[in-house]
Amino acid sequence: MTLMLERPTISGTKPPGFEGLLDTLDELNVPAGYKAEIIKGNIVLSPWSKGYYTRVMKLVCDQLEPYLPEGHLISQAPQLFVFPGVERAYGPDIHAAHEQTYETTGNHLDGEGLSFVAELTSSSTRDNDLTDKVKAYGKAGVPVYLALDMQEEQATILWTPSAKGYESRLTVPFGEKLSIPEPFDCPLDTAGFRAPKKP
């Protein structure tokens, strides 16, 4: 489901900018089972993950936690990270950031505090996870982005953020090990990332 705010003109005023979209997002009554993000100037509602994604997210968090930079936390809790420079607000499936990033009473967290994000694709989010978010996370300077393509069963690690997105990337099929670059500098075993077999 996508709620497209086409930035309507009201009484001859300018359409709402990024801050206006954030205000609308705060007032939005998001249906149970959905999360809301700002992507390409629109508020987009996406369904929460499939059950087995929880297993995959826990496997990622458990493997990366011993290698976190000092003072950083890793979580799969739903949080909205804001990137004003690229006019995006994302709720990544997994996020690691300095603990100070979470020390706020607000619900908009500073995307500049992130050291790592991971997205697990679904049929409804796959295109944005593999294109728009790659570019936006890279432009915003997030050091490491892990895109888990759950439909193609492959993991892509992206690093060296730049104005174009990311300069470096490596893709492996699920079941192989993937090297997570600095500031983590550790292996990630993708065994256990596949969907359960259907009965």
Describe this structure in words.
By secondary structure, this protein is an alpha+beta fold. It contains four helices and 13 strands. It has helices at residues 18-27, 53-64, 126-130, 132-139; strands at 34-39, 42-47, 72-75, 80-83, 88-90, 94-98, 108-110, 114-120, 144-149, 154-162, 165-173, 177-180, 186-189. Strand 9 (144-149) and strand 10 form a beta hairpin. The relative contact order is 0.13.
Descriptors:
disordered N terminus; 3-stranded mixed β-sheet; alpha+beta; single chain; 6-stranded mixed β-sheet; 18% helix; 199 residues
Compile the SSE list and pairings.
Blueprint: H1 18-27, E1 34-39, E2 42-47, H2 53-64, E3 72-75, E4 80-83, E5 88-90, E6 94-98, E7 108-110, E8 114-120, H3 126-130, H4 132-139, E9 144-149, E10 154-162, E11 165-173, E12 177-180, E13 186-189
Parallel strand pairs: 4-7, 8-9
Antiparallel strand pairs: 1-2, 3-6, 4-5, 6-8, 9-10, 10-11, 12-13
Number of helices: 4
- Rg over alpha carbons: 17 Å
Strand count, sense and closure of the main sheet?
6 strands, mixed
Helix fraction? Answer: 10-25%
End-to-end separation: 29 Å
| DSSP, total strands | 13
Oligomer: single chain
Poorly predicted residue ranges: 1-14
Category by helix and strand content: alpha+beta
Order of helices and strands: HEEHEEEEEEHHEEEEE
Kindly report the spatial arrangement of strands forming the biggest sheet.
3-6-8-9-10-11
